[in-house]
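note to self — DONT lose this again. spent like an hour looking for the file last time. sequence + predicted structure for the chain T wanted, 417 res
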Amino acid sequence: MNYIFIDSRNGIEKVGIVEDNKLVEFYIDYQDYRKLAGNIYRGRVVNVLPGMEAAFIDIGEDKKAYLYIKNALPKGVKFKDKNIRINDIIKNGQDIIVQVLKEASENKGSKVTTHITLPGRFIVLTPFSSKINISRKIKDEDQIKNLKEIGKRMQQDDIGVIFRTKSKGIEEELLNDEYNRLIKIFRKIQREKSFLPCPKLIYKEMALSHKIIRDAFNEKIDKVIVNDEEKYNSLLNFQDLIYPNLEKKLFYDKDFNIKFRTNINEGIKTALGRKVYLKSGGYIVIDETEALTAIDVNTGKFTGSKNLEDTVVTTNLEAAEEISRQIRLRDISGIIIIDFIDMKDSNDISLVLNKLEEYLRLDRNKANIVGITKLGLVELTRKKIRNSFGSNFLKECPNCKGKGKILESFIDKPINI
């Protein structure tokens, strides 16, 4: 069974997606902690750094937001133009409209952009681009052609749009209505440029539960379970904005508690561990570092029934599915390196990579397979939007300082030479 659950109690909201009774996505939102990604602010430039081609922006949060030159370029100006400098675009003390791309981390402030985007159910408004783009998940050439023609007919003032996967087969009138609604929101944001105070929040992204349903709910989801009556009513009131006819699959269950759901608890427990066991007896090891995430595949207790080559391929195929699930569940982003068990046959390598790509297509935050290094390592990249799942629960050990090992005293320990 596939379902979305919203467990809201004691000021903590836990939202997850279960596919085939396995937890594949899990998010947590604290009432006293504000999520910033997607929010739009009227901020003030406090420091322009020509040497970094970036600037720090005060958006009213504890840490100053970070604006890179690529995300500050005016419409029509390409990043490849080497003559453009950050201090040609913005100045110290200037008021500026920015949108949060990436949540702040322990060491860094939020990453922001001046290239505002406004997501809807079926489309994403892209005011700083005039292009009409189609989701890569839509493969049908006739559908692509039809959506591009619809885009050209509804386009206003050279404002671009991205047709989401859900736009496939949707009536033009509904697409046009959503485009016009998002245009009105953008116009309102533009009018805020000259109004005090500054910094100021001028557009707030939807609440976590509303956002997940807007972005992830589809015909494959059997139901949405909510244990909070106020949240249930809110979803009903906003269903025209997040998903039409949501009420048919929306269920209020005041007794629902993930504490008593074995499959959900097992999923969370697995996502917090370093080692993940496979059904065959093999396992994968996941190490998240500041620079990248390394994933290692091992046969473990699995010995197979035919030969070594078959054992290796079987383990790698099973690992490919679990790795794609763990990437979604843990919300791993940035550079990801996978060390599959060595395979000699090029057909086997292609089979495993194709399976990995197939499973990764289920991820709304698309991961890009870069290729295989000379050492046989698979390289992936995945866009970072929020901090990883583990950052909500795991803190640095005060003894080993994140190394995972404790230094023994070498003064009193005898050394044999």
